[in-house]
Every structure is written in C-alpha cells, then in structure tokens.
C-alpha cells in the first residue's frame, strides 16, 4: 500500500502571542527535536524545513477592547499567511509548526485564498478541545487563540478577518470541528447562530470515532483541499500533558490514531497545522513525540495488518 504525497515544507511560528500561558513559542523546536522531518522523510516524502517565520516578542499585556496583543497577533499572522501562500504557489504542502492557535487565522487565510485561486473546494477539519469561536464581546480572557474560527468566518476585527483580502475567508459549512468539550456559554450561542458543524465528545461517545470521521469527511472528493488544524489539546491530557489548556475527556491514543488514519485514507490532505504544543508543560518531550507519531499516521503509516 503506498500513496504519493506532494513535497512538504515545515514552517515554524515560534510564538505564544495569542495564548494565556507562555511556552507554545517553543513548540516548533520541540517538534523538530521529536524528529518530525526525519519521520516524514522515512515515509518517502520529500521534506524541506524552511525554518521559522519571525514576528514581535510577546509583551504580556492585559487586553485592550477585548483583545490581547492585537497588533502583534496581526504581524505574526501576516507572516504565517505569506509563508504558507508561497508554499502553495510552489505546489508544496505546508505544515505549520505552532505556536499558539491564533496563528490559524493566517493559515486559514492562506488556505482559503489558495482554494479560491485554484478553484478547489475547501474542507477544514478542526481537531480541538475548544471551538475557538470567541469574539471580543464574549471572550473571557481576550486571548486571541480562542478566536481563530470566528475570525475565519468573518467575526472579528477587520485587521484579522480581512487578512487574506476576502471577508469572510470561509463559510461555517466548510468547517467540521471534532473533539470539542469546552465551549463558553455565549460562544455556544454564536456557534449555533452560525451553524457550525460540531462533533463534540458526547457525539463521539455515542456514535464512535469511525462514524464521526465518516460524517466529518462526507462530501470530500478529488476536488477538495482538506486542511487539518490539529490543536494538541484535542488529545486526552493523560496522553498529551504538554499543552496550556488541558481539558479532560478527550480522545484516547487509539481514537486519535483512527482520526489520523481515516484522514490519510481520504487522500485529500493538502495542508496541516500542529498547534499549542507547550514544551514548558510537557514531560520529556512525550507530547511532541506523540504528535509526530500521529503525523506519521496522517501520512499513511498504518498500525493495521490489512492492506
Ligand atoms: Mn485551539
């Protein structure tokens, strides 16, 4: 069994500018140390590490008008968007090594633009404990890593919603959220208003991960660009302690592997974010190593005996 993948570019974005804990700025290096490049090369994939995009330091200030570090968040996301855009134009698959999840505003903007320009359908799989659908009116913290999905759907400050030049960057019906188990009450109301498709842990418990993924991938075809935004806090904290916002009751190791294997089986993944890994909270880089293990499955390394 073999699949062919386009050449891959690793792009680090070492910042915790949108987070409530310091440390995800060290995520890219932890993923490199855990061997993400070699793991993909070993699967026969051509991999280039582009190094890190650069941006402003984290000034660690309180929120202003419901946003923490808005100017810095814009600068980082513009850098991410431009770096990913260059890879798409070169026919390569970007893997964004975060960094906190606010950087998905830049990656989603780049992916949405790429799909508009290439005439491809977009499907985003958002693997996360959180919906990240807050706005400055309802955010409890002002941390912009809780807002990227809302921004992508046009809810947020113009400097972020308009980053890619098209507002909204995407429609809620292009997004499927999986593993959700922590949503603020006003955020829940917004999600319902905008009709976001959420497969929360209750749904997964009731129908199982296989049927959840079949539903989330339904309609994906050869014209679809699948973007996977993997927040490491998607995983149960018992197997992935190295994140700032752990929530109990997430997918276990085997369920997470099944998610990745079914995405691989679709053959349509065109870009990937690996976000919120926080080495300062990890134990001997185990969470980074688990993330690399799961990425190998996303690229077709199967634990199964069948062909
Ligand atoms: Mn997130």
Automatic annotation (TrEMBL):
CDD domains: Arginase (cd09989). One of its GO terms (cellular component) is cytoplasm. Keywords: Arginine metabolism, Hydrolase, Manganese, Metal-binding. The keyword Phosphoprotein does not apply. SUPFAM superfamilies: Arginase/deacetylase. Pathway: Nitrogen metabolism; urea cycle; L-ornithine and urea from L-arginine: step 1/1. This is Arginase. Its EC number is 3.5.3.1. It catalyses: L-arginine + H2O = urea + L-ornithine. It comes from Luteimonas cucumeris. Its cofactor is Mn(2+). Gene3D superfamilies: Ureohydrolase domain. One of its GO terms (biological process) is arginine metabolic process. Belongs to the arginase family. It comes from the Bacteria. InterPro entries: Arginase (IPR014033), Ureohydrolase (IPR006035), Ureohydrolase_dom_sf (IPR023696), Ureohydrolase_Mn_BS (IPR020855). It is an enzyme of class 3 (hydrolase). The keyword Transcription does not apply. NCBIfam families: rocF_arginase (TIGR01229). Mn(2+) binds at residues 101, 128, 130, 132, 231, 233. Pfam families: Arginase. Binds 2 manganese ions per subunit.
